[in-house]
Amino acid sequence: MQRDSIVTNSKGASSVHLEERLKFLKLDAGDQGRLRMMAPRVQSSVASALEEFYQIIARMPDLNRHFGSEPHRLKARSSQQQHWARIVTAEFGDDYALAVRRIGAVHARIGLEPRWYIGGYGLVLDHIIRDLVTDRRVLTGSARGHLAADLSAVMRAALLDIDLSISTYLEQIDGRRREVEDAQHRSFDLLSGALGQIAEGDLTTRLEATLSERTRFNETVGSLDGLMGSVRRSAQLISTGTGRISDASNDMARRTEQQAASLEQTAAALNEMTASVRESAARSRAAEEMAGHARQVATQGSRVMDQTRAAMAEVSASASEMGQIIGVISEIAFQTSLLALNAGVEAARAGEAGRGFAVVAAEVRALAQRSADAVRTIRQLIDRSVEQTAQGVKLVTETDTTLARIVSVFQDIETIVTEMSATAQRQALSITEINSAVSYLDEVTQKNAAMVEEASATSALLNTEAQALAGLVSRFTLTGDAAASPGWRRAV
């Protein structure tokens, strides 16, 4: 576009500016004639100067980067040599002006700073001036005047070309600056309008792709749109969640209060149970002592029964000895009765003389009979006594066995009561610990109830803040609002 404007304007304004420059530099027809006369020699100097210039360019990366390859450099060198041919042949017409402006536009487009091609002009002029001076072998006053005029013509022609080229370069830079400024103003207006829409809460606004690529506006607004959508959804979820948390906290507070009351009743019941268990433990210790005393009494009774059984055994032995004595007495009575019978027989044989002896024998026999009767009675009594004594020994033995069993049972009872007492003591200790734990739980539950009430209040406050946040976010118009359900809009 810039090149076309240069070509279009060159036929009118460029010719006027060129005439003004020629007049200002006093580069008149005489000087132009001088240039044409020097043209062959100057062109030879330009050729060697350009060859040196492009060798220098090849060694400088900052300059060489403007030329993609060796053919490109050769083409640029040829074009520059043709342009110098126009300068030294004084073809200062519209084509020349267009060519110079085109060169300046190219330099502006590729970003070649003026210092580089001014340096190129200096190098070419160095060769031209040296060659012109060297060719003048005779430097008379007149020759020096001609040389000065020739050098002046070449210098003014080169400066004219530099002036036109730099002017075009500056015009191009200024044009680009104006275009950039216009584009910046337009972009600023677009960006300002878009920001105004965002300030009003409309996040659906977008800029054209070219401007957005430079500012990342669409990407930023899209991210903000997604962020606000996420915030809106999060606010709704937070509002719903905090409402549920508040309800759950209230329900938990009620259950915690009920639990605290139940724990208080449980603690009271455990206190009563602890007292009962302690009383049971005391009774168990008393029962343990009574069982020990009963065991001692039973043991003492067992020892007494052992002594009784020994005494009954002695009585039984005495009864046996009495039986033996009764047997001896019974034998004596029997022998006495036989002697009395024999005495009666002998008294009968003696007749009257033995009558008195017969009476004695009868009395002895009667005494023996009574003795035998008494012995039989005593034997019966002794036999009965022996039987009763044996029965008593048997009963005493059974009693001793029973007492031994009672002692064993009392020992078992004492062991069990001892274990029961120890168990009761342990239970009392455990229930005391449980009572302490329940008291601690009661205290913790009371604190938890207070914390739950505080959490409920905090949840209510958070719910209020979430609803306020949802209200703030709802003022933004998002890209998904068109497809959003009425329920969602109401929730926001």
TrEMBL record:
> Source organism's superkingdom?
Bacteria
Gene3D superfamilies membership: Globins (1.10.490.10), Methyl-accepting chemotaxis protein (1.10.287.950)
Gene Ontology cellular component annotations, sorted alphabetically: membrane
Q: Which GO terms describe its biological process?
A: chemotaxis; signal transduction
A single Gene Ontology MF term assigned here is:
heme binding
Where is the Methyl-accepting transducer domain positioned along the sequence?
A: 234-463
Quote the InterPro entries the UniProt record gives. Answer: Chemotax_Me-accpt_rcpt (IPR004090), Globin-like_sf (IPR009050), Globin-sensor_dom (IPR044398), Globin/Proto (IPR012292), MCP_chemotaxis (IPR051310), MCPsignal_dom (IPR004089), Protoglobin_sensor_dom (IPR039379)
SUPFAM superfamilies linked? Globin-like, Methyl-accepting chemotaxis protein (MCP) signaling domain
Which keywords does UniProt give here?
Chemotaxis, Transducer
Tell me the protein family, please.
Answer: Belongs to the methyl-accepting chemotaxis (MCP) protein family.
Q: What is the protein name given in its UniProt record?
A: Globin-coupled sensor protein
